[in-house]
Amino acid sequence: MRKLLTVLLLLVCTVVHAQKPTHYYVNIFTSQGNAILKLYNETPRHRDNFVKLAKEGFYDSLLFHRVIHNFMIQGGDPDSRYAADRVQLGNGGLDYKIPAEIQSDLIHKKGTIGAARDNNPAKQSSASQFYFVQGRKYSQAGLDSLEQFRMQGNKLSAMQRQVYSSVGGTPHLDGNYTVFGELLTGLEIVDKIAVVATDSFDRPLKNERMAMRILTRREAINLERENSGLPPQNGFFTKLFDSLKSKYYTVQ
């Protein structure tokens, strides 16, 4: 009996110990509500840089400094933390850029996060500034017009047309900026921030601040279980073996 219990204990230990989330997730806190952001593995440089900054508390107390209704809400300028009212923001950042990871199947649908950038020819991203896409829904005729006039004749794929006519977004940004994640919850905060009153620089008249926290290994595992229709794991053995591991994890 003792041998059987030992084998069962080792089996449970192996199963629990081996569990690891498939993605990184970020809890985003705003005055308009909270959200959960999933970071894409297909854009590892942007993913890992964002995780690093969020863990360091870089984004805490920064502003959404540029807000345009039916387009996007932008933040991540370190100069915004202590900025005086009505000061134009958007030129602050870190002393490095992230190489572009633009992919045709990662598009600017509503709720995605993209990396801001300047007009550098390599389309390298700002190391800290980002935007959440709001955009709008398009009719098929509207997409035809967008192709002709805004996209200089470039054609949208069937997938893009389906997404932009049903979910909405900003099609003309595709291929020009790196999209590296999407909101799983809290999409309504984008809509709420996108309609606040702004000045001539598109800066909200009332400061809209943010804070971020990376989900722990167990929180991320349970989130993925719940999204798959499975119950979370929070039992005795789970807590016991979680106590033997770091609360954070690495996604390859």
Structure description:
This protein is of the alpha+beta class and 252 residues long. It has a domain at 22-135 and 176-227: Cyclophilin, CATH 2.40.100.10. The protein is built from 7 helices and 10 strands. The strands form 2 sheets. The protein has an 8-stranded antiparallel sheet, covered by helices on one side. A two-stranded antiparallel sheet has the order 5-7. Strand 3 (64-68) and strand 4 form a beta hairpin. The longest helix is centred in the first third of the chain and has 17 residues, at 2-18. It starts with a helix and ends in a 10-residue tail after the last helix.
Q: What's this, in brief?
A:
Keywords: Isomerase, Rotamase, Signal. By secondary structure, the protein is α+β, with helices and mostly antiparallel strands.
CATH topology name of the domain at 22-135 and 176-227: Cyclophilin
Poorly predicted regions: none
The number of strands is: 10
Please state the oligomeric state of the protein chains shown.
single chain
Question: How many separate helices?
Answer: 7
Ends apart, CA distance between termini: 40 Å
Question: What order do the helices and strands come in, and which of them pair?
Answer:
Layout: H1 2-18, E1 24-30, E2 33-39, H2 44-55, E3 64-68, E4 72-75, E5 97-98, E6 112-115, E7 125-126, E8 130-133, H3 140-150, H4 158-166, E9 179-185, H5 187-194, E10 210-214, H6 217-227, H7 236-242
Antiparallel strand pairs: 1-2, 1-10, 2-9, 3-4, 4-8, 5-7, 6-8, 6-9
